[in-house]
Each structure stands twice: as C-alpha cells, then as structure tokens.
Amino acid sequence: MFIIICWRHDYFDRQTVFIFYCFTIQAFVIFAAHFRVMRTIQFREALREALTEEMRRDDKVFLMGEEVAEYNGAYKVSQGMLAEFGEKRVIDTPIAELGFAGIAVGAAMNGLRPIVEFMTFNFSLVAIDQVINSAAKMNSMSGGQFTCPMVFRGPTGSAGQLGAQHSQNFENWYANTPGLKVVVPSNPYDAKGLLKSAIRDNDPVIFMESEQMYGLKWEVPEEEYLLPIGQAHVVQEGSDVTIVSFGKMMRVLEDADKALKQDGISAEIIDLRSVRPLDIETIVKSVQKTNRLVIVEEAWPLASISSEITYGVQKHAFDYLDAPIARVTSRDVPLPYAPTLVEAYLPNVHRIVDAVKQVSYA
Amino acid sequence: MAKVKFTKEIYTKWFKQMMLIRRFEEKSAQLYGQQKIRGFCHLYIGQEAVIAGCMTALEENDKLITAYRDHGHALAAGIPANEVMAELYGKVTGCTKGKGGSMHMFSKEHNFFGGHGIVGGQIPLGAGIALADQYNGTKDVTVCFMGDGAVRQGALHEAFNMAMLWKLPVIFVVENNEYAMGTSVERTTNVLDIHKIGLAYDMPNYQIDGMKCEDVHEAIADAAKRARKGDGPTFLEIKTYRYRGHSMSDPAKYRTKEEVQKYKAIDPIEVVGKTMISKKWATQADLDKMEDAINIEVNESVEFAEASPYPDASELYTDVYEEDYPFIVE
Questions:
Q1: What is the per-residue pLDDT for A221?
Q2: How confident is the model at residue A24 (pLDDT cuts 50, 70, 90)?
Q3: How far apart (Å, rounded) are the C-alpha atoms in residues A121 and A127?
Q4: Does residue A226 lie in a domain region?
Q5: Residues of chain A that touch chain B, judged by Cβ-Cβ distance less than 8 Å
Q6: Chain A residues with CB inside 8 Å of B117's CB?
Q7: A32 and A93: one domain?
Q8: Residues A204, A70 share a domain
Q9: Which of B128, B318, B327 has its CB closest to that of A107?
Q10: Are the C-beta atoms of A360 and A323 separated by less than 8 Å?
Q11: Is-contact B149 B119, C-beta < 8 A?
Q12: What is the dihedral of CA A300, A303, A305, A306, to 10 degrees?
C-alpha cells in the first residue's frame, strides 16, 4: 500500500520506488523460505516424482516391468503413471526378465531411454546376461556406435523374513562390471536427485532401492534438483572414526551413531550414494583426518564393496591408519527364515558399535 | 506367398553379394591359418543365399541384427570389405575400431546392430530394436538372425511371446545349418521342424529353402509386409548349410563328406550364375568379370587391413562410457 501511494503521488522518483519495491519482494521471499516447513514425502513418492518428471521432460523415456502399469507397481512406485502416460509408455510385461531386459537394451540401442523395473534385484539374475553381456558392453563392442542410455531399477537386499532367494545384495556383482554405473540411494531426497540423474545419464545405470525404505519419509523440496552420480556424501563430520556405508544400511548406521554419541564417540559418516563409480577419494580424505575406518555393507563379505574400499584405503592412506580397518557385513551364509537367524545374519547397531570400538581399541 | 518377378538387376545383386562373401570368407580362412586373424572366427561359406535373398527384399532403413557368424551379414548390410577385413585384423580402421573383432561387427550407418556372441542373446535385442521403431512410429522392420542352436535358449521364447503380444515389426530368421557347433538338430529336440516353435505363440512361421535366393526373398518380403502393416512378427526357418566347421578350430568330424557334397552340388552361387546364363542376362565371361572384380576388392581389403595401424593403447578407455568416468587405474 505504501509503495502504491508513493508511486501514485510521486513522493519519491519512480526509479527509487521501483528499487524499494524489488527489495521488499526479495525480503519476503527470503523470509518465507526461511520459515517454510519443507514437505516430507515417502521414498516411493520421491522415486515416482523422478520418473514422472523425467517422462514429462523427454518422450523417449518409458517404464517397463512386471505389474508397473495396471497394478500400479508391486510396491506402488509407479502408482498413477499408467493413467498419465498411457500404455505406450508404462508397459506391463510378462514374468520374463531375460526377455524384457533384452528388449529394453535393444530399444536403447535404437534411440529410446528405457527404465526397467525389476520387482526385486533377486529376479535380475535371470536377466543378468542382457545386463552384463549386452547393456554394459554395447558401447565398447560397437566402437562407440551404439550406446544404452537406460536404467535398471528395483529393490535390493533383505526385507524381513523373506527367505534365501528374496533377500540378496548384488551391488558388488554389478559394480564389478565396466560399462555400468551402480547407484544405491539411502533416503528419499537422494533417491529423487540420483534417479533423475540416472535417467538422463547416457550410460546404463543400475539403481538399487530398498523394499523396507519405500515408506520412509524425508524432506524433499518441491523444486527440481539433480544429484551427481559418483560423489559420496559426507553426511556428518566427525573426528574419531570414519564410517562408510550406502543404501538401507545408512539407516542402521543412523541408529548406531546415536549409541556412539552417547559413548562420546564422534563419527564422520559417509554415504557412498553410488558404488560404481566408487568415490574412494572422499573416504581417503576422511581417513586421513580420523585415522580409523569402519565399513558397513549388507552384502556378503567376499569380494564386496567393503573389500574394494579396504584395498583403496590401504593403498592411498596406509600411513594414516591407526588400526586395521573393520567391516560389518551380512554373515557369509544364505539368509534363513527364522527371526533369530535373520537377527544373527544382518548388520545391526550392536555390531557396528563393536566394530567402532575395535578400531578405537576401546 | 506372393510370387515376385525377379529382374536381371536382382540376380546380378545376388551373384555379386554371394561371390563377395564367398571370396571374403575364403580369404579370411587363409589369413586365419597365417595367424593374421585371431580369436574365434566363424565362416558363412555355404549360407550366402540367406543374406543375399534377404537384403533384396528389404528397404533401406530396415535393420539387421545377428549372432557371431556375422561377416556375411556385415558385408551384405553394406559395410565396406575394407572395414570388415580391418576389423578381423583388429585394426583401428575396422568397423568397430578394432574393438569388436570377428564376432562383433557393427555399423550404425548401415543399420547393422551387430554381431552378438552369446547364443540367443540377440533375439530379445532384435525385438527391442523393433519396439523402438514401433514406439517412434517408423515403418522400419528389423530382421533378427540366429542359428539353430539359439532356438533352445529361453531368451527366444520370452522374446517371441512379447514380440507377438505387442505385434512388434520384427522378422526372426533361424539359419538352420543343421548343427549347433557339433550337435545336430535331431540330438537337441524331438521337434525337428524348428519353424513350428512359432506355433506356440501363434506366430506365422514358414520353412524356406535357404539355398534359393528367390525363396528367401519372397519369404522376407511377405514377412516385412506383414510387419509394416502392424501385424507383428514372423518366424522363418531357412534351411541352409555351412560348408566349413563351426569355427576355424572345428574340423567338423561329426558329419560325412557325402553330406557336405550334397549341398555343394546345389551351391547357390553356381545356381544363380547358371540361371543368369540361361535367361541370357549374362555370359560366362560376364560372370568371370564380376568375379575378378570381387577378387580385386577382397585383395584390396587385405592390403588395406595390412597397412592400417592397430589402435593406440590410449583407446582402451574410450567407448566404455559416454560420460566422463573415473576408471580405477593402479
């Protein structure tokens, strides 16, 4: 009102009034942003937003997989997407992972940008020939003529008492293969930013989610953002020990950190976000500061991501280590059904705290 | 099937195409013996009528994908002999810059989606290439070749089911040369007519004489017409024969000389040549002249490959990722 009166009556020259007006607006925006409560959405909703936004942005992007369309997704990630994009771009497939993974690779070679949903990555094993022998190698075998800009996504890891065949982690399997990128987000914010980057990436990306995290709520801004693939995130700075993890294990680590804080231990926590590329540099930098390293991983121990990190750290920060590196992984057996055995199998707060104490000689 | 009127031009194309493949492959065998060509090397000799008859039935933008017995398909797709030979040598001037080798010829420019090394792996890929064309609303057709060994792979059955369900514009061609490496068809199945696999998916399927370019052309033309109309895939069992072993290391002791002779007696190059002479479209001298030109082309491809450099070691890290990538380098 004051501005309008000034404008109408020429109390000040109009340029001054206009500048004043601009400052007022800007101040209001900053004020509002500062006090606004950021919305929280579920992991599955964050993924859905990433998928939907990217499909609106680029009509070459489409989603295919079991139950993704009419059923609205086995875990409701793709809920409502058939209604928005139609059956041409949200495609229900028969239970034939090898076949539809290969069809998606062929479509990618011919100019489309497919997103393949595996109901779980356990089932990706029957499609692994097309992921490893076709998608990962097409660029190289063809001398750079045919690329596969595509995403294979779905949940990985254990999710309760699901038995041996539905509880596995193959992050390290895929991470071993040149030509692929492997992203394993640990929260809805990362999931959205990383999935959008994965869809825009011109290389095949394995994007591994968690059945147990689909309902996890987190602050996710309304505005568009992308997160780079290949850069680890230092979630918390600390001085006593570095703890590295990724995916769902970050949530277990969160609880372990509370226990460590009670014991007065300051942990620097690193979320890898992707395991191929593996951001060893960020880990090394942290170890140079804390001199101690614990790695938490849901996969089995042999030839795992933690093995590779251990190699990288002894190679690049050998003189900085004050204790042998410790790791917490799943036990070296198939996961049985009984709750006591599940409890004994998985990494947990107790084992993480023990590992930290071990490297701290505490 | 619609009868096609085959012109002199088509016969001439067949003759030249098949002669080029035959001479190129004979030269490849020779060079393999001299260890100029290394790795696995699977020759197409005897099967030339399949790809020759196919190519004259297709349109310019149609796509091809095949398995590892791919030199003939690569040449027929239009990749210059120089580039195919240089690839066999592993030279940087090869059609995949020395990265693919004998089993992995590719050319985007010629719509050749590659030679693929895992038996049956190219079958879903072929369906996927067709899915993209359907998605983009082109009228292009993909021809997906496979050997008779590949039809036992699950990938075929999954791809056939979806290709038929979604009416993808793809023609699946099994080049039945009767042996999956050393195992004859009758030792792998009790359904000897491979084309009948199509019945399980209501896919139109035919058995074709692969020693006759005419029959192959007609079958492919019909299937392509069906695909372009939106009626979906066709499965063609094209019966053919390879004169040589499975690969260069295979002496082919699992079959008799008489069996090989039976097919050599109906050699498609000779048959097409004789037809051209009988129709007075060419004299023996004309055919000899064409053959001489092809011999020169093949010899020049060897000179080209010999003179070309190997890829520099720095090429190791190119064409793995499209984006910049921080490789682990010790």
A1: 97
A2: low
A3: 10
A4: no
A5: 62, 88, 93-94, 96, 98-112, 129-130, 133-134, 138-147, 149, 178-179, 181, 201-203, 230, 277-278, 315
A6: 133
A7: no
A8: yes
A9: B128
A10: yes
A11: yes
A12: 80
The model scores a pTM over 0.80 = yes
Residue A262, φ and ψ in degrees, nearest 5: -60, -30
Q: Is residue A13 located within the same domain as residue A128?
A: no
Q: What domain range is A110 assigned to?
A: 41-219
- Residues of B12-34 as b/e, b for ≥16 C-beta within 10 angstroms? bbbbbbbbbbbbbbebbeebbee
Q: How far is A85 from chain B (nearest CA, A)?
A: 13
Query: Which residues in chain A have their CB less than 8 angstroms from residue B107's CB?
Result: 145
Say if residue A190 is in the same domain as residue A65: yes
Residues A156 and A203 in one domain: yes
Q: Is the ipTM of this structure higher than 0.90?
A: yes
B chain contacts of residue A129, beta-carbon cutoff 8 Å: 118, 121, 155
CB pairs under 8 A between A and B: 156
Cα B46 to Cα B184: distance, rounded to the nearest angstrom:
17
Question: Would you call A110 and B132 a contact, using CB atoms and an 8 Å cutoff?
Answer: yes
Q: Which candidate from B95, B130, B320 shows the least CB-CB separation from A140? A: B320
- Which of A8-22, A93-107, A118-132, B28-42 bottoms out in mean pLDDT, i.e. has the lowest? A8-22
pLDDT per position as a tens digit, A83-142: 999 999 999 999 999 999 999 999 999 999 999 999 999 999 999 999 999 999 999 999
CA–CA separation, A238 vs A245, rounded Å?
Answer: 15
Q: Are residues A280 and A148 in the same domain?
A: no
In a domain, A115, yes or no: yes
Number of domains in chain A: 3
| Residues in contact with A127: Cβ distance below 8 Å, sequence separation at least 6, in sequence order | A97, A98, A100, A101, A102, A118
- Provide the pLDDT confidence category of residue A33 given band limits of 50, 70 and 90: low
> How is residue A183 written in tokens?
């992203």
Q: Which of A99, A106, A203 sits opposite B129 (nearest CB)?
A: A106
Q: Write the pLDDT tens digit of every residue in A310-325.
A: 999 999 999 999 999 9
- The pLDDT score that the predictor gives to residue A348 is 98
Q: Where do the domains of chain B lie, and which CATH numbers do they carry? A: 8-315 (3.40.50.970)
Amino acid at A122: N
Judge whether B70 and B103 are in contact, CB under 8 Å: yes
Q: Which pLDDT band holds residue B246 (cuts at 50, 70, 90)?
A: confident
Q: Which of residues 158-177 of B touch A (CB under 8 A)?
A: 158-159, 161-162, 165
Report whether pLDDT(A1) > 50.
Answer: no
Among B residues 106-165, those touching chain A with beta carbons less than 8 Å apart: 106-108, 113-114, 116-118, 121, 123-133, 135-136, 154-155, 157-159, 161-162, 165
Q: What percent of chain A has pLDDT over 70?
A: 90
